[in-house]
Write a structure and sequence with these properties.
This protein has about 200 residues and is α+β, with helices and mostly antiparallel strands. It has a domain of about 120 residues. It has four helices and twelve strands; from the N terminus they run E-H-E-H-E-E-E-E-E-E-E-H-E-H-E-E. Helix 1 crosses helix 4. The protein starts with a strand and ends with a strand.
Length: about 200
């Protein structure tokens, strides 16, 4: 099994497939430790100073909402990502910021799935304290997490196939990509990917 951080997942899949035989269709067995998955979250989601902003930005101190410090775990067939959430729904009144805000742990969980070349969390659930502030922003936070907790695996595979996958004078592309098996363990995510390649 190959243990690969971040976008090296795509490279590992391509290397595994290309070394198994003729590049028509083959399977890749990939294991991602939870620590490696945390680095994936950092790379694809926490792109604003180590944070993912749902409202506001780095310079906003009165109205903002963001997550940071991801911690990945697994239980009961579901992948869990714990974030530290901070937010404030304030308004400037003179020199003061007036309005509710809060900081707490927020947990996102789901079943890893693959659709249209993207890895994502199916049956996504968000667990957070039932505070007056979070009730104001829960819809926004959940919709943003659904959009952002995705990894464009096929896109990265296509890039790698175009540059290093094929012999000189030929081009390689990913024709099909399916996930045939997924297993969430206490220490890692294990996936079986069926990859169909073509050379022209």
């Amino acid at each position: 099994m190959r243990r690969l951080p971040g976008k090296l997942l795509a490279a590992g899949v391509m290397v595994t497939v290309s070394t198994l035989g003729p590049p028509v269709a083959d399977a890749a067995e990939v294991t991602l430790s939870h620590a490696a998955l945390e680095r994936v979250v950092w790379q694809v989601m926490l792109t604003e100073g180590g944070r993912a902003y749902f409202e506001g930005g780095l310079d906003d101190t009165c109205r903002y909402a963001f997550v940071q410090e991801p911690k990945v775990s697994g239980a009961n067939g579901r992948l869990h990502v714990r974030f530290l959430f901070s937010g404030r729904a304030g308004a400037q009144v003179g020199e003061r910021c007036v309005g509710p805000g809060d900081t707490f742990d927020l947990v996102v969980s789901g079943v890893p799935a693959l659709s249209r070349g993207e890895l994502y969390l199916e049956d996504l659930r968000v667990e957070a304290p039932d505070t007056a502030y979070f009730r104001l922003v829960s819809g926004l936070v959940e919709s943003q997490l659904r959009q952002r907790l995705r990894y464009p695996l096929k896109q990265d595979l296509d890039r790698i196939a175009a540059t290093v996958g094929a012999p000189a004078g030929y081009s390689m592309s990913v024709e099909s990509l399916e996930m045939s098996q997924v297993q969430v363990d206490a220490d890692a995510l294990r996936v079986s990917l069926d990859v169909g390649l073509s050379i022209r």
